[in-house]
Amino acid sequence: MYKHSTQQQRRNQIETLYNAGITKGVDICQRTSIPKQTVYRVLNQIKDKKSLQHKRGAGRPSKIKANDKRRIAALYQSNPRTSLRSILPRLSSPVSISTLHAQVKRQNFVSKRAVRVPVLTDLHISKRIAWCKEMKCFDWRHPSKVHLWGGISIMGTTHLRIFTENFNQVVYISTLRECLIEEANAKYGDSWVLQEDNSPVHTGRAAKEWKTEFVPLRIDWPPNSPDLAPIENLWAVLKRRLIVLHPKTVSQLKQAIQDIWATFDPDFLRSLLHFNAQKN
């Protein structure tokens, strides 16, 4: 509330009490908590039959010029989120932020805090409740996850192995035996090449010895360079498609992965390998 408005209310309050027969300044002070000096000044004005209305032009002149007042109004009308500090440099004469704040209030612009809760319709509320019931038993600390092993070539994909146990050398050798060796030998004879990164599982002693016996050729891979492997692009595609399907259980997750894996045909794989060759 503006200072002169507050003062006018006090004058009106004192005048009302005076007209009601309460004419002593002490009594008015006790009833209203208005400062004694103000009460006696207004009582003298009443007795002298002077106007109690605020005189136009009374008080300290505003430091903000008329054109700046119009500019302030225009800025707030164009962008209600405008801050006081952003307006200060745009004024023609320097003023304090408190002076600017008072002027903004005089122009009936008010500051409001953002609503702390979202505005929800009945439909939004019902959907939120349904979601909470559905996810009530979901373990956020241990989300469902699986490990994958698969391979690609210009002729297609290998068998995909989906497992939940830790991927160690025993699991790795078993995976190569079941998902790669027989199929690769059938397609390529004894001239196929295995490319994989330098994961400790791939380069461990047991794995190396086993691959020396069963894998015809291997490509040495630069250190810390898993991103060079073409299959990394395929894993990224699989993850993007999986997000769209949004499986809710481990069994749904496994089935979705198998379904996506089955869509990777030779044409897609050749384009993927060609893109990787251009990138590298």
UniProtKB/TrEMBL annotation:
A molecular function GO annotation: DNA strand exchange activity
Domain Transposase Tc1-like, chain residue ranges per copy: 69-134
Residue ranges constituting the Tc1-like transposase DDE domain according to the UniProt record: 145-253
PANTHER family tied to this protein: PROTEIN CBG27172, TRANSPOSASE IS30-LIKE HTH DOMAIN-CONTAINING PROTEIN
Name by which UniProt lists this protein: Transposase
Resolvase HTH domain boundaries: 9-44
Gene Ontology BP term (one): DNA transposition
Record organism: Oopsacas minuta
